[in-house]
Structure formats: structure tokens, C-alpha cells
Amino acid sequence: MALQEQWIAACREVSVVHGSGEAAVRALHRVSLQVDPGERIALLGPSGSGKTTLLHVLGRLLEPSEGSVESHGAAAFVFQSSNLLPYFTAFENVAFAASLAGWEYDAGDATTMLLELCGLGGKLDHLPSELSGGEAERVAIARALAQRPRLMLCDEPTGHLDSDTGERVLDLIDALQTEIGFALVVATHDPAVASRYDRELELADGTMTGKAALD
Q1: What is the pLDDT at residue 46?
Q2: Is 181 left (phi over 0), alpha (psi -120 to 50) or beta?
Q3: How many domains does the chain fold into?
């Protein structure tokens, strides 16, 4: 089918190969996927299945070895570990992203608003080492929102969290997605996490199963 005019990101017959010759490793094999506005997709598969590679392709961090990828609007990442700048406070981590994103009003005001939206209004001056795992992940979510994305790509966002904290982080992402309306793609190895989302796609050895959107 033809691509819809309003799609956010799409890849066609994408393959990714790392290395060459006998050492070559195929991370993705002829994967096609379209992400539409406001859509909520889970990528389910074990470690090494190609989930992270596909997120990087969709977010334009990685060019495919074969096939094509296109996007409309900014994408932002939430990684498995929060990847915060260790010597920056929560406020400074988010403000750095906000300063680059072209906010119509002061980036500092936007930063405070986003951290409050993520339940961290009392943690603005805390360093990452002073935050719990769940709090650090919420800072990472606020930092992603500061980039004003149309697409949020979450790579095992609860991978380093206990089950209760992970559930709260997922609830926050879902609430923000509903309120703001960005498209969401979550990579996970956990079927319970994948079941939260509207469309579930499985990856195994770099090959996609389940119903994609370029059928």
C-alpha cells in the first residue's frame, strides 16, 4: 500500500549488516514498518533480536545497509539506562535539550514545566547520583520531551528497574503519550509490557513477525 501522507516514520525493506566478510553480522533483514501519528507500537524480542537497531534506524541514528528510511518530525530516545550527564543536575540535563529545541518561550521555564509534569518538581537541583533509578528514568523522559518529538522511541525503559518502579515509569509514558499525542515505539523483551500497546511486533534474529503497516 502507498505511504499515508501523515506518517511519522517509515522504513522499507531495511537490512543492517555490521562488519564484512566472514565476520559480518546481520542485525536486521528486510524489515518494513510505518509509524502513524499517535500510534503505540511494541517491539518484542529477546536480546540480540534487532530491536535496538530498528529503533536507531527509525530515529535516524543509523543508516541502513540496504533499503530506505524516511521521517517527518523529530524523534527522541529514552534508553534502557537513563544516560544522564553525571555532573549536570536534573534541571541542567533537561535544559540542555530544551535549549536546542526552539521553544517559543524561555528554555528554563520549559525545563521546569517538563520536570514538574514528570513529578520531579522537587528534584531540579539533584545530580543523577542523588536520584533513584525511577527518578533518573523520569528525568530522561523529561529530556526526551524537551526535544519536542513527534515520535518517542523507548529502548527497554524499565530494564534496570524493579517491577513496581517500572510499572510507574510505563504509566507515566502512557499518560504523557495520551496527553501530548506523540507516536510511541517501545522495545521490550517482556510480553506483559508489550501487551500494553496497540500493535505488537516481534523480532527474531533481525526478522520481523506480526502485522507491520506496509502490507
Answers
A1: 93
A2: left
A3: 1
pLDDT at 184 over 70: yes
CATH assignment of the domain containing 172: 3.40.50.300
In a domain, 51, yes or no: yes
Strands 25-35 and 40-44, sheet pairing = unpaired
27 lies in some domain: no
Which range marks the domain in which residue 175 is found? Answer: 36-209
Q: Is 96 exposed, middle or buried (0-12, 13-18, 19+ CB in 10 A)?
A: middle
- In angstroms, the CA 143 to CA 150 distance is 14
Q: What is the average per-residue pLDDT within 141-146?
A: 95
Helix axes 107-117, 133-146, angle to 10 degrees: 140
User: 105: pLDDT confidence band, cut at 50, 70 and 90?
Assistant: low
